[in-house]
Amino acid sequence: MFAITVCEVAKENGMDIFRVFDSLNYLPNMLLGMEAAGSAGGVVEAAISYTGDVADPMRQKYSLEYYLKLADELVKAGTHILSIKDMAGLLKPEGSKLLISSLRDRFPDVPIHVHTHDTAGAGVAAMLACAEAGADVVDVAVDSMAGMTSQPSMGAIVACTKGTKLDTDTHTKS
Predict the structure, then answer these.
(1) What is the mean pLDDT of residues 105-109?
(2) pLDDT confidence bin for 170, thresholds 50/70/90
(3) What is the C-alpha separation between 116 and 89, in angstroms, rounded?
(4) 28 closest CA partner among 62, 63, 74, 60
């Protein structure tokens, strides 16, 4: 099978973590990719594509229950890491807290990784909320490349966590 061969070659050439996602969260496609990456010996990071607003009760199609059900299936299928892929930067702080704390409660031992784009400008606040709610990893970009369609600012995250329980312990020379 082509997918398995591609994953095997990638693994042989140094790729360790395989983020598997489908932009429409179509589970059969994701399971195919997860199986290929896992069979090659890779670390499987199943990523749920986020849309909508889980904190808005008027939004019913992509509700919290929708994401939790999908996460159940991905964990059951053997993902090593559960990821939220916020391609459009729609994840806001309140939704971040609700989604990540619910995932953390349901899967206390599964690493949670959040990837967002700062398209709407709320990326720093959303990633801080995700970290507070129990995410293990949040993606950021170096300040000069951050914002807009890139990831939130690393410098802003580091500055905002200084002196808190989330302090990155980054030391800089004065």
Answers:
(1) 98
(2) confident
(3) 6
(4) 74
Residue 173 has pLDDT above 60, yes or no: no
**What are the distances in angstroms from CA 54 to CA 31, 98, 114, 142, 148?**
24, 7, 15, 29, 22
Note the pLDDT tens digit of each residue in 22-33: 999 999 999 999
Domains of the chain: 48-161 (3.20.20.70)
- Report how far apart, in Å, the C-alpha atoms of 131 and of each of 29, 38, 139, 162 are: 29, 27, 11, 13
Q: 116 burial class (0-12, 13-18, 19+ CB within 10 angstroms)? A: buried
**DSSP codes, 20-77:** EE-TT--HHHHHHHHHHHHHTTPEEEEEEEP-S-TT-TT--TT-HHHHHHHHHHHHHT
Cα separation, 106 vs 146, whole angstroms: 32
Q: Could you tell me the two tokens for 137?
A: 């990893």
For 61-83, the pLDDT digits (tens) are 999 999 999 999 999 999 999 99
